[in-house]
Every structure is written in structure tokens, then in C-alpha cells.
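Thread: acetamide complex, take 2
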Amino acid sequence: MKTAIVQTNPVFSEVKLNIQNALEMMESVNADLYVLPELFNTGYNFIDGKELTCLAETSSGFTVKEMSVFAKRKSCYVVFGFAEQTEKIYNSSAIVGPGGLIGVYHKVHLFYREHLFFAEGNLGFPVFDLPIGKIGMMICFDWIYPEAARTLTLKGAQLIAHPSNLVLPYCPDAMVTRCLENRIFTATVNRVGCEDRGGIDLKFIGKSEIVSPRGEILTRLGDNEPGITVIDIDLSAADNKLATEYNHLLNGRKPSQYRLPHNNM
Ligand code: ACM
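Output below.
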């Protein structure tokens, strides 16, 4: 399964331009699955909820339509982050395919000032059983809670598509551990560039990567420039959960020993 990671440099609020730039990069390669950053269409650093309300779209809005047109024309799948207007506004990722929208995920673990504007995710961690494989989604800071990747693994995900806007330095290396402990593939796709807005200056660290179930970094992009790369991976490698012939990593879990006082699990 050819997986493309699409590291972009969005300009805040320039939705059409950001989509056009991403599509130009995506046109330059052939893949079965393209993964884009978190909030790739709007940019990240909202000053207030009013700005977010202006830029949020529904799951039948412009961005989902544009990505669906690409997916239909190229017979492929695309995962991307966007601000989703429902009765609340979520930091969402969508997966679209040749037939249009397949599903959305609402970011569960909000980061930093996202707490001021976005609602907390309420859909759990869905896994989509597609012709290309079993694909789960999480968004950026979800990485720091091992429960997110573990839940997706226990639900059968072979690859976690991980749209991100990373500013802290830890995630790219930490994903090696997420992959090793779950024996899954991850495609962490970050953006580059800076957003200095309302006195809050954020620099995004790039280093988008695909990591294998053995913890190998199959490809990693740079920290400064947009870029795209495609890796052909065999998702069935994620079905072997044996660390040794005696250690099946999922069957070896001991939930009875993880119980906390007051059943706070
Ligand atoms: C993040 O969750 N955007 C760091």
C-alpha cells in the first residue's frame, strides 16, 4: 500500500491557497493513501473562538469536497485535519475515498490553547476497514497518551494516520515506541513554518514520518521545508503481534493488574 506523507506550510486563514498547494504536491506522486497535517486548510493558531467559527466547515463543506474530488479522480484515500462545525466545533480529521466521505475523528486530547476554542472529541477512536487496509486516526497530541494508539490497535488498526501540528520536539522519536509496543504502522504528518498571531508565536517542527511495526523510521522529512514522500508498505506486517514466540503483545496484557483504586481505569 503506497502511503504518501504530505508536509505542508499553510498560511493562516488562506483556505483555498492551502488546499491548492496541498493538491499540487499530491498530484506530483501516486499513492493509495495520502496523509496531510492537522488543520491543513486553515492554519492552527486561532486568536479567538470567533476566528475559529469563521473558518470551521461541516463534513460536507468545501475542504471535504475538494479532497473527495481528488480521491475519486485518483482512486485513492486521503486523511486530513480540519476544524469541523457541528453543534460544536471539533478539531477533526476526515478520511475520504473514491466514494466521498468515509468518516471523521474528533481530537480527544486537546493541546494548549485548543482548550479555549475546540470541544473535546466524543467519538472515541474509530477504525475503518477499507480495501487498502484497516486505518485508524488520531491527531497530534493524542500521541502522548499511549491509550490512543493502544485503543486503535485493539480495535484492529494496521496503520494509524496521524495528522499533526507539532510544536514540542518529542513526538517523532516517541512514535517509534508507539509502533513497537503496538506493532502497527504510523504515518505522522506535521507541518512546517511559524504562526505569530496575537502575541502567541508557534514554530512547527516538521519531521513527518512513517514508522514500521518494528520501530524502523521508514522515511522522515526535514524540519523546515514542505515535502512529500511515498513509501510502499505491507500492512499485513502489523498483524504479527509476536515479540517472541512466548510474547504476543496484545494477548500478554494483564488488565486485571492495571486496575486502579476506585476502579478509576
Ligand atoms: C498539537 O496537538 N497540535 C500539538
